[in-house]
Design a protein that fits this description.
ten-stranded mixed β-sheet, 11 helices, alpha/beta, single chain
Length: 322
């Protein structure tokens, strides 16, 4: 006697009834880029994604809310860059300014603030350099100052992305000391030094002017170290962990998910987005179905939260009943 597993695949209703993994619009965070100065501009390598001025950002928030997307991740594009990223420590910080406007107009939206310095430094590295090398502890000091500034602007979640040693505990202590013990930290806890980030560096004007980020982002060959990075951030006080990028790292999502009870986010990054859009433009794929198949794979692997430039498209497909 053998099992007739096809019995439960016979009709759409049966397949839906026994479906094990389900996508919801509530799973998604939409990443957005906000400019400190200048009009909105398209990002050539990321079709459909813009560097937004504040007016267009608020229009985008209205659309996200209409689609049922309740969370967004903000990246700031400053008018001024220097060696220490001083624009990230001013009241005119583009993410702080945008957060205040969003909270005034859309108080129910959850604003997640990316916390880093690569967009704000003229050298494109993620903090203070000493003899051409990122100074871990000096950067932690200014990272904490930026965290307090963003907390004061009204952000709901801080998302530090620098991959520095001791980053989470330094931020937790600084936030608690200033009365922000309630503010969650979503750490980029396992972030690989990946070629999938290429289009983001155009989007955020953040490509390093020399060298690379391999001394602080993770070697993509290392599985055990990747697990250790996330578990260390949990020990230091992270509230949400993250794996970045997505497509080539679903094994890491499963490995970390099996070792933590914290929520786990997955960042579907710019290069992954651009590859899908290029394939769509050339009619190489059944775009809508492949998009939902991929997002379902992210959840099946163990992601609780999906950060994706596809968030609006997925929401629209789910509304249609795909």
């Amino acid at each position: 006697m053998f099992k007739r597993l096809r019995r439960l695949r016979a009709t759409p209703t049966l397949r839906n009834l026994v479906r094990e993994t389900r996508l919801s619009v509530a799973d998604f965070i939409a990443p957005l880029f906000v400019r400190q100065e200048g009009k909105s501009a398209p990002i050539a390598s990321m079709p459909g994604v813009l560097q937004m001025d504040l007016e267009d950002l608020l229009k985008e928030c209205a659309l996200l809310q209409e689609l049922g997307i309740k969370a967004l991740l903000l990246f700031g594009l400053p008018a001024h860059k220097d060696a220490t990223g001083s624009s990230a420590l001013c009241e005119s910080h583009p993410v702080a300014t945008a957060t205040r406007a969003i909270k005034e107009n859309f108080p129910d939206l959850c604003v997640v603030a990316d916390l880093c310095f690569c967009e704000y430094t003229d050298h494109g590295h993620c903090g203070i350099l000493k003899n051409g090398i990122l100074d871990n502890d000096a950067t932690l000091e200014i990272l904490a100052k930026q965290a307090i500034l963003l907390a004061q602007s009204g952000v709901d979640i801080l998302a530090p992305s620098t991959m520095l040693d001791g980053m989470v505990i330094a931020l937790r202590q600084a936030l608690d000391a200033k009365g922000f013990s309630h503010l969650p930290i979503m750490s980029y806890s396992t972030k690989f030094a990946s070629s999938y980030y290429g289009p983001f560096r155009e989007a955020a004007n953040s490509a390093p002017s020399f060298g690379d980020r391999k001394s602080y982002q993770m070697d993509f060959s290392n599985r055990r170290e990747a697990i250790l990075e996330s578990l260390e951030d949990e020990i230091q006080g992270a509230d949400i962990l993250m794996v970045k990028p997505a497509l080539a790292y679903l094994d890491m999502v499963r490995d970390i998910k099996e070792r933590t009870l914290l929520p786990l986010a997955l960042y579907n990054v710019s290069g992954e987005y651009s590859m899908f859009k290029l394939a769509q433009a050339h009619n190489l794929i059944d775009y809508d179905n492949l998009l939902l198949e991929t997002m379902t794979a992210f959840k099946r692997a163990g992601a609780d939260i999906i950060i994706s430039y596809h968030a609006k498209e997925v929401a629209q497909l789910l509304q249609k009943g795909f």
